[in-house]
Each structure stands twice: as C-alpha cells, then as structure tokens.
Write a structure and sequence with these properties.
The complex is a heterodimer of chains A (218) and B (528). By secondary structure, chain A is mostly helical. Chain A has 10 helices and no strands. With 528 residues, chain B is of the alpha/beta class. The chains are: A mainly alpha (218), B alpha/beta (528). The interface between A and B is large, with 82 and 93 residues. Chain B: Pathway: Steroid metabolism; cholesterol degradation. Chain B: It holds the Pfam family GMC_oxred_C.
C-alpha cells in the first residue's frame, strides 16, 4: 500500500466536516452566535444570496436586498426556499452557516471601524459594496470554511438560474424571476421542449482537410 | 445462499456495458452491479427541479477539481452529450510528464481504428452535416471561417431523425434519440441472460474463498429515495471481475480493497486527468454577429440561440496539429450546459462571477456561446484517503465530496492559456464577443471527462494495468472505463473508452474461458 499523506487526510477531513457537520462549524468563532434566531438566519443568508445575484428592495426599508439594481435577484427567485428544500440536507445547518457569515461580518467591520447596529444581523448591516468585498475574500483564501461558501453559492445559482424548487415548465408558467431574467425558452404545450428551427442550415466554414469519413480528426 | 456469477461487471456505462455484452453473448453468466437507479425515457424529464436530473448525475467536488459523472444504469452514456470522435493520432504518442510514451506499444490510432469502426456501427454514430449544426455551433463555425480557420460538424451517437433538438441531454433522452448503452449493448447483454442490478454500490473486492471463484465482491444496496441509506448488503463471488465504476469510482474501490488484496499497483489513484477540459463563455454581441458573420434566423434574429439544439454540434480541428509540441494541441468545441453552470461564467471585470455586472450578463444569456477546450494536461491528479463507503462522501443528491486532488501544473496552465488565446483570436475578433473562462473559485477546474486513475501502459511504475486492461498482479481483474485511458485525448473520450472496451473484451473472454466457462467466439455486434 502506498504511503498515506497525512496532510491529505487532514485536508479531506476538514473539507468534508466543514460542509457536513455543524460540529465542524462550532469550532469557529460562530459558536458564540450559535443561538441566533431563525429570522436572522434567513436575513443573513438572503443578504449573501443578494450579494451574488442582486435584486431590488422588496419593500421600503428592505435591508436584506440591498437594492443595488432594479428587478429580481436570488432572493426574489426563492433562494431561501431552495436552501430549506427537503431535497437538500442543508436546513439544519443554515443557522450555523449564517452565524459563521455574521462572525465574518463582525470581524470585517471591526478592522474597518464600521459601526454595526445590534438590531439586525451583522452581514445584513453591511453596505452592498462591503458585502461584495467580504464575499470576494471568502474565496481563494484556502480557509477551512471555503467549501461551505462554494456549496452555498452553487445553491444560490440553482435557485435563480434553474428554479430548482419547481418543475421547469411550471416555474416558467408562474413567471419564475430567474428563468424570466434569462429568457429561458418556453416548452411545447405538453411540457417538453422541441426546436423545429435550430440551425442556420448552410455551410458556414470549410471542413478540416484531414477529416476522416466518419467525421473525426485524423 | 452464496451468490455466484461467472463475470461480475461493476458499472454499466461504456466501460461496463460493452464487456458485459460480449461475455454474456459468449456464454458466460454475467451480473452487472450499478450504483445508480435504472431509468428510461419515461423517467427522463425536461426539468431542472431538484430530485430529477440530480438523481442520475453527480457533481463530485475534489480539491481543485470537480467532476461531472453519470449515476444510473447506462452510466455516462445516458447523461453525456454524445459527441463521438476518434482521438487524433498524436494523442497516442504523448509522453506527458513521465518521459516516455504513456500508451502501451501495442496501441496506436491505427491499431484502435478497427475497434472505433465497430463502436461507430454498434451505437451507431451519425455523421452530421451543416443542417445538424445548431445556431450556437453555427456562430462558432462562422467565426472560425472569418478568422481563417476550418470548423467541422461533430459526429454524434444520436438518431438525428428522432432527435427534437430539445437540449436536455444532461437529463437523459426522453425521446430515445440518444444512442446510450440503454439502447444497444445493455439490452443485448440482457437478451443473453445478463442481469443488471441497479442501486448496488460496490465497496470492496477481496480474494474469494469459494472454490472455482477468484474474487468476492461486497456491495451495499442503496435506498432509491436517499442514496446515503443502505437497505441491504451482500457478497457475490465471481470468476472474473470487470471494474468500470468510472474514473472517480474505480480507483477508490481498488484503494479500499488494497489491504485485503495484498497490495495494489502504485499507479492506482495517480495520473488522474481531466482531459484538459477548460470551459469558457463568450458573450456574443448580436449586432456584430449579424454584421461580421452575416447570420440570420428565420424569425429575423441573428443568434440568441444558446439553449437551442443539441449541446455539441461543431468544433475546429485546426489546433490538433500533430507536428505541434505537446501541451499546445487542443480542440475547441461548441457546447451547451444547462443554466446550472451559469454561476461559473465570468464578466470581464471584478468580481467576475457574481454581482451586478454578472446579473446584467445573465440578461444576455440567450446570446452566450459556451466553448469547451479539450487540452493536454499533465495527469497531475491524485486520489487521497478512502471515504467510508462509495466513491465519495455524498453531501446531497447530485453533490459529493470526492477524495481527488488536482493542482494544475505550469504546463497544464500553459495549455489552457494557449486555448484561451486561440479562442479569443476567433471570437473576440473585431468585437464579436467577450470571452472569459469559467471561474475556478467555486469548484476548481471542472471536467466531464475524468481519465487515467488506473491506466493501461507498459511501465509498471506509471500504469496500473497492462495493455490488456488487467490489473497488474491480479489475474482476471480488469479495468475498462475512463480510468484506463492513459492521458488526455484532446477530444471527447467516450468513443475511445468504448473502443478500448471492445478491444479488451478479447482478453477478458480468454480469462473467463480459463476459469472453465465454455465461451464461443465470433460474437456479432449487439443487435445484429
């Protein structure tokens, strides 16, 4: 048997544990905020999603959606529903993940002398540009919690770009904000997609001279 | 009661289905264990709802790399994009990082060509023309021509008459137009008595204590509603084992079995390649596409065709130059991914993959053109500590944490950079589009073509298998999936994996016969 690389063991374990187990997360500064309320969890994770795919304020005074744009973003596309989807084993971990992000926000604010209100989650209290800066720093850092942010980002994309909580045809029929934003094509009446017109239908380039009879390279 | 079979096949994709057919048709009792569920056209849905496609496709995250892999009866052939290309001659001559030819001396493009011929007939592969090329493929072709390059329609394992160009190939084909293993080798194997057992995940291979049987294979039966739950366990004894669990699954099974097998070749779980896959998104300027390329659709729009048509329809072969040095050859291919991967696309400014500008770029999604460069990487991937069960730790349906690590070498990065430069030369010319590669921030480099993690070769120190795909030191234990392919091919590897499996079937049949099974030769192609 080949020699086992101890560093590889540690890296694999920490990567897995960070994503899989709340226990992995309680080893972080988030422990102090582990009793954070569900309301704060939703707000913090919503603000994270809004940083990745921004949307407009949902109502006057909306703090979660920073209102960096007009029109829908990940929150309007139902990202919180996807995070809580029974299809994902994520729901029990969300308070810990939100607390971890809020702990990051506290640290971020502290070194920049940004005053944070005690009345809302620290990450939510950051401006959109500060949220963006903080989130940028979560990636490529090699931090133990980086896999958490990677998975969470993929889920944000699943909510906006794929309407992952719904069948696609139904989501389109209901005007899902993300699919509408992409201008995802409509299906046939039976809910299946077919494209009768799909090709310019004419030669558009010379073929490579060494093409084989089956169409492969030589 | 002790379970036995003559030939146990682990995995039912190209690498498993093909030997399974030949062994069953030759007269052996064949059992196929497949980790994923058995779905057919009726179950394949046009939906991105969680709980649909992600039950049959896995994204397996490693350290620096993520792999997209099939997880169903038929394996990758069910969810792949059916591009069916022979590897160029030079791919077989590569030296890579080991300073000598990586492929066995007995294999070259010329010696593999007869096996390619067979697979092309058996699937079958359709030779496509310009009327098969999607709008997206057409934009690449027209841009190639304008930049002084050739471009070819890509042959596909698709019944083009039955194909509706729906672009849902990652979800399996609801119209049975894609010629996956479900439509050729697997039903032919079953017609000869092979038994397919879905949701059977192999954990361990050990020597068998049963007389006349060489290996005992331990498996768990997975709950169809939650693959992390085990509903049963079992052991099956086999005279010959064909391991084809995919380039991420196969090395892990062997690593877990190493102690009980008395040690395995050192090359198992090393030399992992992502086929040099490197994806970029071109944000096409519609007006430029009209004025520069002269393109127009029947409804008057110029392009806006990203989601329309088959996912792979055109590619330029201009950079497959056999006289060019290694790490400078690549194929540039038009490809479509469902918007699941939109998160990876980048704008030209910071922060790149997220934020206001990225959202604005999403509004132009129909005008994106996605490109896959298949380059020459350095086989720098390795597999680490074995997970408790399966090939990886399942985090969620369709998402796993794997044990592979891939730290791109300077040469791999240079290969990607050369492909990027070529792509920009074609697609950014006169402002036709802005091209940026996918970010590596979320998933490392992403590949749908894992290769090389238990590869064939002549050098025992750098290849786990001999040139007949037999694991060195283990008579009757074969590996026939993408793991066996020694290195990046610079084209989509499915046809090569299939051709190698066709070729390997002869050596496997010899071992089956040696084990006392009466085998008949001259087995025809499936369905003939």
């Amino acid at each position: 048997m080949s020699t086992i690389d101890r560093r590889a063991i540690l890296k694999a374990l920490t990567a897995s544990v960070a994503v899989l187990a709340a226990g992995g997360l309680t080893a972080t500064p988030a422990a102090a905020a582990a009793d954070v309320s569900e309301g704060w969890t939703t707000q913090t994770l919503g603000a994270f999603a809004d940083t990745l795919i921004p949307g407009e304020h949902r109502f006057p005074g909306d703090q979660v959606c920073a209102g960096a744009v007009t029109g829908p973003g990940a929150v309007q596309a139902g990202v919180i529903d996807v995070m809580n989807s029974p299809q994902l084993p994520l729901a029990p971990l969300l308070p810990e993940i939100a607390a971890l992000l809020d702990a990051r926000a506290v640290a971020y604010a502290a070194v920049r002398l940004i005053w944070l209100s005690p009345s809302r989650p620290p990450f939510v209290d950051l401006s959109f540009s500060h949220r963006t800066d903080l989130v940028s720093g979560l990636f490529g850092s090699g931090d133990l919690d980086e896999p958490v942010w990677q998975v969470m980002s993929l889920i944000v994309g699943i909510a906006f770009d794929t309407a992952g909580q719904s069948d696609t045809a139904a989501a389109l029929a209901q005007g899902h904000p993300g699919l509408a934003w992409l201008r995802f094509p409509e299906p046939d009446p039976d809910g299946l997609w077919r494209f009768g017109d799909f090709s310019y239908g004419r030669p558009l380039a010379a073929l490579h001279p060494a093409t084989t009879p089956s169409g492969s390279p030589a | 009661m002790t379970e036995t079979t003559d030939v146990l096949v682990i995995g039912s994709g190209f690498g498993g289905a093909i030997p399974a057919y030949y062994m069953a048709a030759g007269g052996a009792r064949v059992t196929i264990l497949e980790r994923g569920p058995r779905w057919g056209a009726a179950q394949f849905s046009h939906s991105m709802r969680l709980g649909t496609y992600n039950k049959i496709v896995d994204v397996i995250r490693g350290d620096g790399v993520s792999v997209v892999a099939g997880n169903c009866v038929g394996g990758g052939s069910v969810v792949y994009f059916a591009a069916s290309l022979r590897a160029p001659s030079y791919a077989f001559e590569r030296h890579g990082s080991i300073g000598r030819r990586m492929w066995p001396a007995s294999l070259s493009r010329a010696t593999l060509d007869p096996w390619y011929d067979r697979v092309e007939q058996a699937l079958p592969v359709a030779h496509t023309g310009w009327s098969d090329v999607s709008y997206a493929g057409g934009v690449l072709a027209a841009a190639c021509r304008r930049a002084g390059h050739t471009c070819n329609p890509v042959p596909v394992a698709v019944d083009t008459a039955a194909c509706t160009n729906c672009n849902w190939m990652l979800s399996g084909c609801a119209f049975d137009a894609k010629r996956s293993m479900l439509l050729n080798y697997l039903p032919a194997a079953e017609a000869h008595g092979a038994v397919i057992r879905p949701l059977h995940e192999v954990q361990l291979i050990t020597p068998s204590p049963e007389s006349g049987y060489r290996y005992a294979v331990a498996y768990t039966v997975l709950d169809p509603d939650d693959y992390t739950c085990t509903t049963n366990v079992g052991i099956i004894h086999a005279k010959v084992v064909v391991l084809a669990a995919g380039a991420v699954g196969t090395p892990v099974i062997l690593q877990r079995s190493a102690l009980l097998l008395g040690g395995i070749p050192g090359a198992v779980g090393r030399y992992f390649s992502g086929n040099g896959d490197h994806v970029s998104v071109a944000d096409v300027d519609e007006s430029k596409a009209g004025s520069l390329l002269g393109l127009s659709r029947p409804d008057g729009t110029v392009y806006q065709g990203l989601p329309i048509g088959r996912p792979i329809t055109s590619a330029t072969y201009d950079y497959l130059d056999p006289s060019a040095p290694e790490y400078s050859r690549f194929m540039l291919q038009q490809i479509y991914f469902p918007p699941l991967t939109n998160i990876l696309a980048q704008t030209t400014g910071a922060p790149g993959w997220f934020g206001v500008d990225k959202r604005r770029m999403r509004a132009r999604w129909p005008s994106w053109l996605t490109l896959l460069a298949m380059t020459e990487d350095d086989n720098e991937g390795t597999f680490g500590v074995v997970p408790p069960t399966g090939g990886f730790i399942r985090l969620a349906p369709g998402l796993g944490q794997g044990t592979m690590s891939f730290r791109p070498t300077t040469r791999t990065r240079q290969a990607w950079d050369r492909a990027d430069t070529a792509l920009r030369g074609i697609l950014e010319k006169d402002g036709l589009s802005r091209v940026r590669p996918w970010t590596e921030a979320l998933a490392g480099t992403v590949t749908a073509h894992p290769l090389g993690s238990a590869r064939i070769g002549d050098d025992p120190t750098t290849s786990a298998l001999d040139d007949q795909h037999e694991l060195r030191g283990f008579r009757g234990l074969f590996v026939t999936d993408g793991s066996a392919v020694p290195a990046s091919l610079t084209v989509n590897p499915s046809l090569t994996i299939a051709a190698l499996a066709e070729r390997a079937a002869i050596g496997i049949a010899t071992r089956v016969a040696e084990a006392g099974v009466t085998m008949t030769g001259g087995v025809p192609l499936p369905g003939r």
